[in-house]
Amino acid sequence: MAGKAVVLLSGGLDSATTCALAREEGYTVYALSVDYGQRHRIELERARQLARRLGVAEHRIVAVDLRAIGGSALTADIPVPKDRPAEALAQGIPITYVPARNTLLLALALGYAETLGAFDIFIGANVLDYSGYPDCRPEFIAAFEALARVATKAGVEGEAFSVHAPLVDLSKADIVRLGAQLGAPLHLTWSCYDPTPAGQPCGLCDSCRLRAAGFAQAGLADPALGAA
């Protein structure tokens, strides 16, 4: 039987599906969300709602204010790109990349896991349709897993940490289908990088467009549209 696992739960589609999958695989889930000063702070409230609906054993929100270093449209006064051509979404590293974010998030998850005696960490990283983020690639996941085994007391004493990125090679449509199949509460998930003043998705940022395309290609309506 699977034991404890720490799941990074951002409040988005990918992390919600990952959390539901970890539960399905029999893990006792300890969810971790990070308030890093992100522009789209609505996702933190959605993470709280998702944690309740997914029945995790514990949900913690840790604050690490990455606005102090900036460098991203999500953490600094830099416009979020809107309505970019489809071909541009797959080229280069966009300004919505947050420097070293997944390294920092996984480091926090690793510390949390070690205190719990958990040796499995889940992250909803996805490479195929996520525009150029270097810390969403399999090479990064493998490198961090190797780091975890030499950077912790548990690791040097012989425990092997595993970093799971079960969605890493899936298309957004595949993720939508998997989330629906698992019964994940997709209507609670949040993807938009730049919410309107009324708290609605902008519909034009890269993340909104990738989400819309994923639901369309999966042949499903997005249950989050119009959700409170």
Strand order of the largest sheet: 3-2-1-4-5
Main CATH class = Alpha Beta
Mean pLDDT: 92
Structural class: alpha/beta
Distance between the termini: 37 Å
Specify the overall morphology: globular
Write the layout of secondary structure elements.
Elements: E1 4-8, H1 13-24, E2 28-35, H2 42-54, E3 58-63, H3 101-116, E4 120-122, H4 138-150, H5 153-156, E5 162-164, H6 172-182, H7 206-218
Parallel strand pairs: 1-2, 1-4, 2-3, 4-5
What does this structure look like?
This protein is of the alpha/beta class. The chain has one domain (4-218): Rossmann fold. It is 36% helix and 11% strand. The protein has helices at residues 13-24, 42-54, 101-116, 138-150, 153-156, 172-182, 206-218, and strands at residues 4-8, 28-35, 58-63, 120-122, 162-164. Strands 3-2-1-4-5 form a 5-stranded parallel beta sheet, sandwiched between helices. Strand 2, helix 2 (42-54) and strand 3 form a beta-alpha-beta unit. The model has no long low-confidence stretch (mean pLDDT 92).
Q: Would you kindly provide a brief summary of this structure?
A:
The chain has 7 helices and 5 strands; from the N terminus they run βαβαβαβααβαα.
Please give a handful of descriptors for the protein shown:
228 residues, alpha/beta, Rossmann fold, 5-stranded parallel sheet, globular
